[in-house]
Write a structure and sequence with these properties.
133 residues; mainly alpha; two-stranded parallel ribbon; 5 helices; 3-dehydrosphinganine reductase activity
Length: 133
């Protein structure tokens, strides 16, 4: 906001899981439930897809740059006080806010349920291992 008068734009990009060597290294020690939630939340994107979307968003002057259907919906749902320079995007944000807030309850429930199921699986495995010792 402070630099816009000087012709300087600011953008925030929210890249999804991206198929890179760094992501492969991250997966080595990643908890299983984190991997499952990531897959459920949109899956894996190629670096080319991510870069192209970011460049397109920068060229368009977007403040919030997201990728994929889930990313777009989360961007709409979490717009809050973020600047918006498009009338159509502003309308989408305002008109979808209530519906997307309701949808967020489902996603939160689903992700918490996945975490609880993973804990139960670990507890059963741990109990079975202690019985065989």
């Amino acid at each position: 906001m402070e630099v816009k008068a000087y012709g300087i734009g600011v953008a925030v990009a929210y890249p999804p899981d991206t198929d890179t060597p760094g992501f492969e290294r991250e997966n080595v020690g990643k908890p299983e439930v984190t991997r499952l939630i990531g897959e459920d939340a949109g899956g894996l994107f190629s670096p080319t897809q991510v870069a192209a979307t970011m460049v397109k968003g920068l060229k368009a002057g977007d403040f919030c740059i997201t990728l994929g259907g889930e990313g777009y919906l989360v961007g709409l749902a979490t717009a809050g006080f973020a600047p918006c320079f498009s009338v159509s995007r502003a309308l989408c944000q305002v008109l979808s806010a209530g519906v997307l807030r309701a949808a967020s309850f489902y996603y939160n429930w689903r992700f918490y349920a996945m975490a609880a199921a993973e804990k139960r699986r670990k507890d059963v495995s741990s109990a079975a291992a202690s019985v065989t010792d």
